[in-house]
Write a structure and sequence with these properties.
With 398 residues, this protein is of the alpha+beta class. The protein has helices at 2-24, 27-30, 43-49, 51-58, 61-64, 71-76, 172-178, 209-213, 217-225, 243-254, 282-286, 296-301, 304-308, 328-338, 346-349, 359-362, and strands at 66-68, 84-86, 91-98, 101-108, 111-117, 120-122, 128-135, 138-141, 144-147, 152-155, 169-170, 179-188, 194-205, 260-261, 278-279, 365-373, 382-387. The structure holds heme C (7 copies). One heme C is lined by residues 43, 46-47, 50, 53, 57, 62, 207, 209, 211-213, 238-239, 315, 319-321.
Length: 398
């Protein structure tokens, strides 16, 4: 009895101390820590006040573009009749559910020779999923990717087509465009070689609010402490940015994969000059090799719409907070915002009502020169199709 009283007393005293301490704490201390540092708040905090954006954010391709693999979700696309890839009669990769997870298992003459687990998924699945597995502090790409166009597995882009391959490293560069953070250490392996080590537990999956809006802790604290204030403070106001600054916010990830990053773009924030992060892309501009994959910025900048208007940016057509995917009538309305009158020939006008779909004629889908994929039993590569952001007059096919 005495013991129980003492415990009650201690608990009571503790409660008082906690109450006093929590009164002393300011708003900043109540926020959960963010691995990126003091300046960041994390998406879970942002959506507490921006509730109306939470729903669109949850379904946005940006936030879905990387995540840890959850077996149940993977099993949805894991149908028994298409869970294998045959290279030839001796070699195959089979997707297998085992007790400890789901694996890509390589077989040589029906003997399992290599098995790696699905750990992390890249891509929202809009076009494709590619998977990675961890060994210690290193991430590698699995030999098979899933392509939505064929609803099936095929060899991961750029992988050899005659045999299975498990040793392609996924560097932090992929995560710079497909995630919000990973802690990277450079290990000096020898006098000549450096190796990158990524801390698995530090990954912030998906592209979150602060990758596009910059670190927001100060904004959060201010508005928590001043709930009556209705104008945004301590966060960059998008409409006050210059045209280049607006293009740079998206250009961090949408100006191609051939750029050489001089420093990590994880810390890029609106208003920064992207040229301070990337060195010039001579491959893309010099060789006319601008690709529809990943390089919407350069494609758009090559168009007359961009060059002859002073205001066009990605926001002329896209708002990252709405979901109008596939609604080409709404997109066409955005063309008409600038093109109230158009001079089409009788032949073009005869194709029917033009106003509901300017897109298929002036931004046709094109196959990527960088990405294509190998299906089982096919002797040619399959095309990976993307919208061309080079808005122009194309030969009419239909
Ligand atoms: C305590 C409440 C609160 C939290 C938490 C909060 N905001 Fe805000 N935010 C506001 C208020 C109030 C405004 C001004 C009214 C409005 O535009 O909705 C605002 C406006 C904004 C704007 C619009 C700026 C403009 O262009 O006018 C952005 C962007 C923004 N917040 C981003 C964020 C991000 C990113 C986070 C998380 C890091 C965040 N907010 C967390 C309260 C909050
Ligand atoms: C892929 C980049 C991107 C991501 C991710 C992103 N935003 Fe935005 N956000 C923008 C851009 C660009 C604008 C300006 C839109 C415009 O002017 O058309 C904007 C506008 C806003 C605004 C102004 C009001 C509005 O609805 O237009 C708020 C508030 C905001 N964002 C909050 C957030 C929050 C909170 C998150 C995370 C849940 C988030 N954003 C994630 C790019 C992004
Ligand atoms: C941190 C990198 C990053 C930034 C910054 C970024 N994006 Fe993206 N964006 C991506 C990736 C990766 C995808 C592919 C997502 C997927 O489907 O897996 C994507 C997909 C998209 C898509 C196609 C999917 C959809 O939602 O319709 C659009 C449009 C888009 N981005 C526009 C923008 C615009 C506009 C901005 C600037 C406000 C921007 N992005 C900023 C990385 C980024
Ligand atoms: C410079 C930024 C950048 C880098 C680096 C990058 N990607 Fe992407 N990736 C994108 C963008 C932007 C898209 C979507 C639009 C497109 O294809 O043009 C995309 C699309 C994808 C998709 C298809 C998503 C879908 O469902 O539509 C996958 C899968 C993918 N990337 C995986 C990877 C992997 C794995 C790596 C590293 C080996 C990588 N990416 C490196 C920017 C990048
Ligand atoms: C911000 C304003 C703006 C938007 C939005 C816009 N354009 Fe343009 N576009 C222009 C300007 C300015 C020109 C140059 C007109 C000229 O030379 O007379 C142009 C030129 C063109 C041309 C002629 C191209 C050439 O190479 O000769 C086509 C076709 C075109 N636009 C189609 C579109 C379509 C389709 C959309 C929507 C997907 C669109 N535009 C969106 C401003 C815009
Ligand atoms: C059936 C295909 C097709 C559709 C749909 C279409 N265009 Fe065109 N457009 C063309 C062709 C082809 C030309 C070159 C002139 C011609 O032969 O008609 C052209 C020319 C243009 C031009 C340059 C001539 C000028 O008016 O200055 C603009 C701008 C343009 N289109 C904008 C649009 C817009 C905006 C829409 C949607 C409202 C649209 N187009 C729908 C095929 C199309
Ligand atoms: C003139 C209008 C216009 C502008 C400006 C524009 N886009 Fe797009 N974008 C589109 C249309 C239309 C689509 C096809 C949408 C669909 O099918 O749902 C698209 C699709 C995309 C996709 C998905 C790729 C695919 O093939 O499915 C990405 C990524 C993208 N845009 C990024 C950007 C970025 C980044 C910018 C700025 C550099 C930009 N866009 C500027 C009209 C535009």
């Amino acid at each position: 009895m005495k013991g129980a009283k003492r415990i009650l007393f201690i608990l009571g005293a503790l409660a008082v101390v906690i109450l006093i301490l929590s009164r002393c704490m300011n708003a900043a201390d109540k926020l959960p820590p963010d691995i990126r540092g003091e300046a960041y708040a994390g998406a879970a905090t942002c959506v507490k006040c921006h509730k109306d954006l939470a729903q669109s954010f949850a379904h946005n391709a940006h936030v879905l573009t990387s995540k840890p693999v959850v077996d149940a979700a993977l099993l949805k696309i894991f149908s028994p009749d298409s869970n294998r890839f045959l290279f030839d009669e001796h070699q195959k990769v089979v997707i297998e559910k085992r007790d400890s997870g789901i694996f890509q298992v390589a077989y040589q003459n029906n003997k399992a020779v290599r098995a790696q687990k699905f750990d992390i998924q890249f891509g929202s699945g809009e076009k494709a999923y590619t998977y990675g597995y961890w060994i210690g502090n290193k991430l590698y790409e699995l030999p098979l990717s899933y392509f939505s166009a064929i609803q099936n597995w095929a060899i991961s882009p750029g992988f050899p087509k005659n045999t299975f391959y498990y040793d392609r490293a996924i560097t932090s560069r992929c995560l710079e465009c497909h995630a919000s953070y990973v802690d990277v250490k450079i290990k000096q392996e020898s006098a000549f070689s450096k190796e990158e080590q990524m801390e698995k537990g530090s990954v912030i999956y998906g592209i979150d609010c602060e990758r596009c809006h910059g670190p927001g802790k100060q904004h959060v604290v201010f508005h928590m402490e001043n709930p009556e204030e209705k104008t945004a403070k301590f966060i960059s106001i998008f409409k006050t940015l210059s045209r280049k600054q607006k293009m740079d916010v998206c250009g961090v990830c949408h100006s191609g994969n051939t750029l050489v990053a001089q420093r990590s773009v994880f810390v890029f924030k609106p208003g920064d000059d992207l040229d301070a992060y990337y060195s010039q892309d001579f491959v893309g501009f010099g060789g006319g090799g601008i690709d529809v994959h990943g390089n919407q910025s350069a494609m758009l900048k090559g168009s007359n719409c961009y060059q002859k208007s002073e205001t066009m940016t990605c926001q002329s057509c896209h708002s990252t907070h709405e979901n109008i995917k596939g609604n080409l009538a709404i997109y066409s309305q955005r063309c008409i915002n600038c093109h109230q009158t158009t001079r089409h020939s009788q032949a073009t006008l005869a194709k029917g009502s033009l106003t509901s779909n300017c897109i298929d004629c002036h931004m046709p889908k094109e196959s990527s020169k960088l990405i294509s994929f190998q299906q089982a039993g096919k002797d040619h590569l399959s095309a990976y199709m993307l919208r061309s952001h080079h808005i122009a007059i194309y030969p009419v096919i239909k």
